[in-house]
Amino acid sequence: xxxxxxxxxxxxCASSRGLGKACAVALANEGVDVWxxxxxxxxxxxxxxxxxxxxxxxxxTVLADVTTEEGRNALFEACPTxxxxxxxxxxxxxxxxxxWDQSDWxxxxxxxxxxxxxxxxxxxxxxxxxxxxRIVNITSVAVKLPQAELGLSNGARAGLTGFIxxxxxxxxxxxxxxxxxLPGFIDTDRMRNVVKAKADAANKEVEQFSDTFFxxxxxxxxxxxxxxxxxxxxLCSQQAAYITAQNLxxxxxxxxxxx
Length: 259
Prior knowledge:
The chain is α/β, with parallel strands linked by helices. Helices cover 44% and strands 14% of the residues.
């Protein structure tokens, strides 16, 4: 399927690896010009080479930490008028809420709530003026299925979800959509760290715990990052113009609820 977004411009945050990289690759494969960002130039360059090898959309690297004002400034200096923004940032570490202090909470809220809000603030009016825009926020299945050890993520990402619910419908008349993608256990470094924390809490070896853990999931496996990226690319398509203000689970059936 041609997603009809070739030639569009996309900022993909925290995209040198993991889920952000998968989204950048999927968009570039559709002919989108992508601006990828990260905190390590070597890793960014490797990812850029992989994207360039696709022979589709152009790729530009931006050495930037999206969780900082300076990083967001750098992204918009590099790409002032994006048609697509994929908000993403590394999640806070798992742990016991009794051990987290105010600085831990403020950091989580900045990284996984405020940073995305500021990216939207900087881009949405231009999208409305041009009559096209796609904003996708990578949050987490924990928004709907909280994990005790992911309390910092639960709180910050749920806050972003509530904010999006309040602003996402207004721009729809201008062909500007805002949606949230909720990954479950997708095979990335982040997922492996979370699974290890769960195994440690259960006092089990990671391999043994993983076999049982994923065996109990409907899909019987972790997700593939490319599957997640393809879902993101579809939400950014012209065909997805009638989808907005939604929280789309990509979790292999992990969340058991009806709604």
